[in-house]
């Protein structure tokens, strides 16, 4: 999760393409299988991970160092292309299943689902002035929600999201007002000894649950410890 990740995603969508997130933590055979299945037009990555991601004949865009200046230099003589029109039924991104019942399968997700979901959320839970949203857990989905409304999106580093003290410090220091949690992640944060929840999470005004069953025990615990937060 990084600035380059976000820039790549937005650029792909603006170009009318579809986006496939791949986890570099996947075993090499799985990475090779997914890339062979999808046959991408281009692979955006960083130098650190490029040796693990190989696919014959596909160009790499390595987003390290002076990549922006390099792109400007390479593209300076190309004519500006007109905007690409997309419809609600065009593919926006592809995600792969976990493969628990066999080989992982690609799921093609059209713009329709994301557009309808974001539209409803923006109307049901409108952003307020000075809101700041922190994203990591379902990054491919989360990051567009605040950006589509001109709200600052704070990227939670991968080495922070599952470290309760670091996460609490990040929320406090960045003055985060909204964040999506899996119930187990929030439970771990609430139960970690030594964290001053009243101080660290004071800026939070709203949390969204996703990915797991939300128990009434957890919901009541949040209401008791952090009564100012909307769930």
TrEMBL record:
Keyword Phosphoprotein carried by entry: yes
Ranges where the AMP-dependent synthetase/ligase domain occurs: 1-226
Pfam families registered for this protein in UniProt: AMP-binding
Assigned keywords, A-Z: Phosphopantetheine, Phosphoprotein
Entry annotated with the keyword Phosphoprotein: yes
PANTHER family assigned: BETA-ALANINE-ACTIVATING ENZYME, CARRIER DOMAIN-CONTAINING PROTEIN
Name of this protein: AMP-dependent synthetase/ligase domain-containing protein
């Amino acid at each position: 999760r990084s600035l380059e990740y976000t820039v790549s995603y937005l650029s792909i969508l603006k170009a009318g393409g579809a986006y496939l997130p791949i986890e570099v933590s996947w075993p090499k055979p799985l990475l090779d299988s997914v890339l062979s299945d999808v046959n991408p037009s281009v692979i955006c990555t960083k130098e650190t991970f490029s040796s693990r991601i190989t696919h014959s004949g596909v160009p790499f865009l390595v987003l390290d160092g002076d990549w922006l200046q390099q792109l400007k230099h390479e593209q300076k003589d190309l004519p500006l292309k007109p905007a690409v029109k997309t419809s609600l039924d065009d593919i926006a991104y592809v995600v792969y299943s976990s493969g628990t019942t066999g080989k992982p399968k690609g799921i093609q997700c059209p713009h329709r689902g994301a557009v309808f979901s974001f539209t409803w959320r923006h109307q049901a839970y409108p952003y307020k002035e000075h809101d700041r949203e922190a994203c990591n857990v379902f990054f491919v989905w989360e990051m567009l929600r605040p950006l589509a409304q001109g709200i600052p999106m704070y990227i939670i580093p991968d080495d922070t999201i599952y470290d309760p003290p670091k996460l609490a410090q990040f929320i406090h220091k960045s003055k985060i007002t909204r964040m999506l949690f899996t119930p187990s992640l929030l439970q771990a944060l609430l139960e970690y000894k030594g964290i001053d929840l009243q101080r660290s999470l004071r800026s939070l005004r709203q949390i969204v649950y996703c990915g797991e069953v939300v128990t009434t025990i957890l919901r009541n615990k949040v209401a008791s410890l952090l009564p100012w937060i909307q769930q």
